[in-house]
Amino acid sequence: MRILYAEDEPQLRESVTRGLREAAIAVDAVADGDAALTQASVHDYDAIILDVLMPRRDGVAVCSTLRQRGVQTPILLLTARDAVDDRIAGLDAGADDYLVKPFAFGELLARLRALLRRSGEVRPATLVVADLTVDPRSHRVQRAGEVVELTAREYAVLEYLVRHAGRVVSRAELTAHVWDENHDPMSNLLEVYLSRLRRKIDGGQHAPLLHTLRGAGVMLTAPDSTDGAGLP
């Protein structure tokens, strides 16, 4: 998952960004509304978090502008104001939800998960492909009943592939949803993480689930779903 997070308070922005990244979420963090609009026009995000009180352009104005531009990405507003009129203004501007400061980080994660469920994408509690199971809440991964230990980035790559199991995911798409804007598109990091996942997920006596299609991308699929299609 990749999100845009706009917050003008440096300490809060840094702590929330760090927590999100530790939860295997790629984050582009900005400090004002104008920067948020610029980022949202360049990148495709899974969700957007906007602080209401920001310099240059506040979160409500950013939300309204994004909706006018046709952006349908789920938007969560963060506000220090708990007045009913302020909440109504945010929701009328097109926000999907709001969270009042100060907030527990666990609640922020829960609201993000809820926004993604409401967006129409089916997100089951446990993801299963063949004998591979992934728990998005605990980040627990098992293959054939055995726990597979993954780093946060390895988990992020695997979860995206599992959520799109059965179809080819291009390297550009995978990179866009797992890394933030600081990622060097010319680096070989994705290949490194895919190699590690193959070793951890498909190593030993396991039938391979991860397949590379030269010139197309990567696909995660159950062994009997390849039908001898020549997937390496």
Question: Overview of this structure, please?
Answer:
By secondary structure, the chain is an alpha/beta fold. Helices cover 39% and strands 19% of the residues. It is built from eight helices and eleven strands. A five-stranded parallel beta sheet has the order 2-1-3-4-5, with helices on both faces. A hairpin with a 2-residue loop joins strand 6 and strand 7. Helix 2 packs parallel to helix 3 and helix 6 packs across helix 8. The longest helix has 14 residues. It is elongated, with a radius of gyration of 19 Å. 34% of the residues are buried. The C terminus is likely disordered.
What is the strand and helix layout of this fold?
Blueprint: E1 2-6, H1 10-22, E2 26-30, H2 33-42, E3 47-51, H3 59-68, E4 75-79, H4 84-92, E5 97-100, H5 105-118, E6 127-129, E7 132-135, E8 140-143, E9 146-147, H6 152-163, H7 171-178, H8 189-202, E10 210-213, E11 217-220
Helix pairs in contact: 2-3, 6-8
Short account of what is shown:
The chain has 232 residues and is an alpha/beta fold.
Question: What features would you highlight for this structure?
Answer:
8 helices, 4-stranded antiparallel beta sheet, 5-stranded parallel beta sheet, 232 residues
Number of helices: 8
First-last Cα distance: 27 Å
Unreliable residue runs: 227-232
Choose one word for the global shape: elongated
- Could you give the count of β-strands? 11
- Biggest sheet statistics: 5 strands, parallel
Fraction of residues in β-strands: 15-25%
